[in-house]
Fold this sequence. Notes:
The structure holds two protein chains of two kinds. By secondary structure, chain A is an alpha+beta fold. Chain A folds into two domains: 5-230, 4-Layer Sandwich (Phosphatase 2c, domain 1); 234-391, no CATH class. In chain A, 30% of the residues lie in helices and 27% in strands. Chain A contains ten helices and 18 strands. Chain A has a seven-stranded mixed beta sheet, sandwiched between helices. A six-stranded antiparallel beta sheet of chain A has the order 2-3-4-5-9-8, with helices on one face. A five-stranded antiparallel beta sheet of chain A has the order 1-11-10-6-7. In chain A, β12 (234-239), α6 (248-256) and β13 form a beta-alpha-beta unit. Chain B is of the alpha+beta class. Chain B has one domain: Glutaredoxin (3-Layer(aba) Sandwich). Chain B is built from four helices and four strands, in the order βαααβββα. Chain B has helices at 12-22, 25-28, 31-34, 71-86; strands at residues 4-9, 37-42, 59-61, 64-66. Chain B has a four-stranded mixed beta sheet with strand order 2-1-3-4, covered by helices on one side. The mean pLDDT of chain B is 90. The A-B interface holds A 267-268, 270-271, 281, 283-286, 289, 292, 294-295, 297, 307-310, 353-356, 358, 361-363, 365 and B 8, 10-13, 15-17, 19-20, 23-24, 26, 39-44, 46, 48-49, 56.
Amino acid sequence: xxxLFTELEFHxxxxxxxxxxGDAFMMQKDAQSGRLIAVLSDGLGSGVKANILANMTARMAxxxxxxxxxxxHYAKIIMNALPVCRVRKIAYATFTVIDCRHDGTVQIVEQGxxxxxxxxxxxxxxxxxxxYGNNTPQDYRKLRVYHFTAQPEDRILFFSDGVTEAGMGxxxxxxxxxxxxxxxxxxxxxxxxxxxxxxxxxxxxxxxxVCKEPGQRACDDISCAVLYFRTPRRTLLASxxxxxxxxxxxxxxxIRSFDGTKIISGGTSADIVARELKRPIHTELFRxxxxxxxxxxxxxxxxxxxxxILTLTAVLNxxxxxxxxxxxxxxxxxxxxxxDSDEIHLLVGTKINQAHQDxxxxxxxxxxxxLMRRIATTLEERYFKEVKLEFI
Amino acid sequence: MKKTTVxxxxxxxxxxxxxxxxxxxxxxxxxxxxEQVEIVGSRCLGYCDANGHGKAPFVKVDDQLIADATLDKxxxxxxxxxxxxxx
Lengths: 392, 87
């Protein structure tokens, strides 16, 4: 189990008439223990009120789960802590708490949310649950608790009722898409693409759900999270020439022998590798010509070759969510590769390009070393990637 | 007939100093001339980092280096090179 990587991704569409989603998703990973906790909560109603309920619930649940408080105890505290809705006279938010340990043991606690789907070997598998709660009309709270050990290639999908109830009342889906419809959909998608990432799976489910809604406008918040236990996908991103030319051969060999996706960001770095490995390199001048970023190049055995500083700056902005491109370019390709990877090795050449220090340049170019450090931090903290930063 | 090679440097410095506009060369080149040239992109040619070559962006028309290149300068050099070749 130690070799498995847990890819956890979330996608959401808010109710079409609201400006704020009423579902909240939170996750945290303990770098030391490898424990991963994620919560999805759906607040009563929609809009700001639901958002507050959902966020309060998710935050409390994640803290309680982290502190190993018993779920029966914390579920009660959460319910008693939520403000009571003036209209409905109840305080309510559903939640699903996924608690995954490094050894692969998983505990899932659900309160009011649709039951999660476990896809094992690409097929939905029902896991027995224990139910808690007195199930009386006075008490609307009922907990379902599941324990199991994850297997390689398992996918856990959990979602708000916006997914299962999508299209409800329509001729085709009188009772909504339902959990069964969602399970069949994702089973078919995984059959087409065995390596379907958690991110793409979550996006596909949300997209499919909204397509079932009248006029394709979400009638409720539609949220889906996917946790995928997969064999780590490894990527090497090399950028910058080595400090000493005597390390050029070692640099090229590190890249050549890497087992995984290989990316070079930097023209001079790419030329060094091409020279050392005696491989032809070709710049695709007219591909992405309107992209406002330098073109990509191609070299046998290397998955992506881009320019350095400008492209990496754009990649950092993309990863931080500060920038969006409507068209594919070198940076979107690179960011996509990084997001689809689990273990990322950043190999940073430390030779300073004197031309970049010229004060007459129209824009300020960041120092490669600090740029790569910031990319590493973002990949670790925002995307939970395992990152190794090496300077040469 | 051997074509004249126009090499546009797309290294970081050249790109921000104007090479991004030079990528439009094929759009502004007369179709009759376009048939006689091959436009290629290049990683950093190294001129920006060495003294004595002038300012970026750099373009080469065959072996002739153009510093501080603009579309007009490149077009003029292409015509000159082709005219010389026609003699």
